[in-house]
């Protein structure tokens, strides 16, 4: 309810989430709300920590202060990532959003590390913690605020498909668990004199480190070139196969230059007897329509397939049956027969799963095995085989 009110109030054109300007406004809103709430939580927890002499509560306070810095980094990240393309960066600056998320992750890790040391010192040198009702209530209020902030981050992160905001949401929920542990420790101090504050502080610190580690992983993956979402891969494939004369697709490549900046290329199999101008018009239309519908830039390469030659059709059918006896092979493409007279080459690519890590010797063995089986059918034919890996499930 509050989330929708804030979005409606402060995000102009909020329904057009594909717009880069609207995306920026969502990012600004998330960053500003995060900064305001975390600054408030820092004030609450720092006051409570000093009042009750608790290292665990103080650790939580400075964790929230690091979250303020994280929110500011998020704001600047959205601002810089929205810069248009230029000569030095022809695909835009979208990956800055991932870099800002990485900075946030390292800030979180740094805070966690510092409080591991502080908590260890408190375990070695315990100090009494005094329970007080008002500080305890303030901690409960901070938990409620963090639950809302986590849901708010997740909501707007899903709306604009932002890994940075979704990661902030996960980090906020991890704070809920750590603050809950601190509140329980404070409550326990009322009933026991055992020095549990340092141990709870250590638990909180480890939770912070774990959250930072996950944030690093989430932001590094797109920078290193993570596999695209399965839904995007399937959508490109299914939409392209709906066009007339396109009989198959393969060799899809997807490059992510930041949210809303995805460039993809794919090979489309077409009958070789279709006039080039006619099929070019279909391919050109498919590129434009799919690019618009999926908010990507798609380039399509045409692979002409001979569908009239009886010899090629028979050889293709025999190859299909032969490859069924080789479990490692998922499919084949770019099949053609080259040469004159009796001695000819069967040229094609086979596709194996990405999990199959073959050595050069194993690849040669696989090629020889397939060639041997085809030689039984076509003694004068020689198979020239290229091995592709299926990283995207096509």
Structure description:
This protein has 394 residues and is α/β, with parallel strands linked by helices. It has 3 domains: 223 residues, Up-down Bundle (Alpha-lytic protease prodomain-like), CATH 1.20.1510; 79 residues, Cation efflux protein, cytoplasmic domain (Alpha-Beta Plaits, 2-Layer Sandwich); 86 residues, Alpha-Beta Plaits (2-Layer Sandwich). It is 62% helix and 15% strand. The chain contains 11 helices and 6 strands. The strands form 2 sheets. The chain has a 3-stranded mixed beta sheet with strand order 1-2-3, covered by helices on one side. The chain has a 3-stranded mixed beta sheet with strand order 4-5-6, with helices on one face. Helix 3 packs antiparallel against helix 4 and helix 4 packs antiparallel against helix 7. The longest helix has 33 residues. The model has no long low-confidence stretch (mean pLDDT 84). Keywords: Membrane, Transmembrane, Transmembrane helix, Transport. It is found in: Membrane. Its main location: membrane. This is Cation transporter.
Short description:
The chain contains eleven helices and six strands. It is of the alpha/beta class and 394 residues long. The chain has three domains: 2-224, Up-down Bundle (Alpha-lytic protease prodomain-like), CATH 1.20.1510; 227-305, 2-Layer Sandwich (Alpha-Beta Plaits), CATH 3.30.70.1350; 309-394, Cation efflux protein, cytoplasmic domain (Alpha-Beta Plaits, 2-Layer Sandwich).
């Amino acid at each position: 309810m509050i989330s929708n009110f804030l979005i409606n109030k402060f995000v102009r054109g909020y329904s057009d989430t594909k717009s880069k300007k609207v995306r920026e406004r969502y990012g600004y809103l998330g960053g500003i709300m995060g900064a305001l709430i975390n600054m408030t939580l820092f004030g609450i927890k720092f006051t409570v920590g000093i009042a009750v002499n608790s290292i665990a509560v103080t650790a939580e306070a400075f964790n929230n202060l690091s979250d303020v810095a994280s929110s500011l980094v998020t704001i600047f990240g959205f601002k810089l990532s929205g810069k248009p393309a230029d000569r030095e960066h022809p695909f835009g600056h979208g990956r800055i959003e991932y870099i800002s998320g990485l900075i946030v992750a390292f800030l979180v890790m740094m805070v966690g590390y510092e409080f591991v040391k502080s908590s260890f010192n408190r375990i070695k040198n315990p100090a009494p913690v005094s329970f007080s009702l008002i500080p305890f209530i303030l901690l409960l209020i901070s938990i409620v605020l963090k639950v809302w902030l986590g849901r708010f981050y997740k909501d707007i992160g899903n709306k604009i498909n932002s890994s940075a905001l979704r990661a902030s949401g996960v980090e906020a929920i991890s704070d809920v668990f750590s603050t809950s542990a601190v509140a329980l420790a404070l409550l326990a101090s009322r009933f026991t004199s055992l020095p549990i504050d340092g141990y709870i502080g250590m638990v909180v610190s480890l939770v912070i480190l774990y959250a930072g580690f996950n944030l690093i992983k989430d932001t590094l993956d797109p920078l290193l070139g993570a596999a695209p979402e399965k839904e995007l891969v399937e959508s490109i494939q299914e939409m392209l196969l709906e066009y007339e004369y396109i009989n198959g697709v393969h060799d899809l490549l997807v490059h992510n230059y930041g949210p809303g900046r995805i460039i993809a290329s794919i090979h489309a199999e077409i009958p070789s007897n279709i006039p080039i101008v006619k099929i070019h018009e279909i391919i050109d239309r498919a590129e434009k329509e799919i690019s618009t519908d999926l908010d990507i830039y798609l380039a399509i390469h045409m692979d002409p397939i001979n569908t009239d030659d009886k010899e090629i059709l028979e050889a293709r059918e025999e190859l299909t049956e032969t490859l069924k006896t080789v479990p490692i092979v998922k499919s084949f493409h770019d099949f053609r027969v080259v040469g004159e007279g009796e001695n000819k080459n069967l040229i094609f690519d086979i596709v194996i799963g990405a999990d199959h890590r073959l050595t050069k010797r194993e690849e040669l063995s696989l090629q020889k095995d397939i060639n041997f089986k085809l030689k039984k059918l076509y003694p004068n034919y020689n198979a020239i085989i290229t091995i592709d890996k299926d990283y995207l499930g096509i």
